[in-house]
Predict the structure.
Amino acid sequence: MATQRELIYKVKSIIRAGLITDDDKISDRQVAFLIDTARATLLRQQINKGQSLSNNNVQTIKCLNLESVDTGFDPNFTMDCKVYKTVQQLPKPIEGKNKDLITGISPTAFGGFSYEFVPYSRVPYMTFTRFKRPFATLSNGYIYLIDAPYTENISVSGIFEQPNDVASYDDCEGNTCYDWDSIYPMSSHLIDPAIKMVIEELSLTLKVPVDKTNSGNQALEQQTKTQEGGA
């Protein structure tokens, strides 16, 4: 596992043959965006192959405030019950098969309890379930708690398309939920493929030849071993 700052440094070290100068044409923010994009592509490939995704890809937004909303927020919503909505929109989650990859929703103060997450298309059918229970759904980027007792804020975990978007959220003590020194939410076996994708993209931008031979792969492996040895 590595931080995003370490991944950015690794990419820039390889593309510049280990020399990073102040006037480098490649910005850290650009590299960070490309790493996020490569990660999303690789995770979608795993989903399309029917492979499960590790919890190492999950991030948690620890403190989302709620507000009460009228049940008429959507004309298709017919349930007569209490509804609460997050004040802030969520970052865009990666889409799995028939659902967004939201992996957990719970009251911040009672982390042991988790609301059932229901795709929005299934919400109308929840009226006919035999056993009524609180549940959550996602619509237009907002989490809605349906038929749930009031809670001041909730914690939401998921696999988000752009991990850096989580940096704009704080926990209930005001600490950021993510920064470049946090462990990057990506399985270890995806790190090298992601870096190769980023280097190829940057090489096209900078018009730098990409070594796709064994020697090129060995350079990446040597860079990885060097950083691991110094960790």
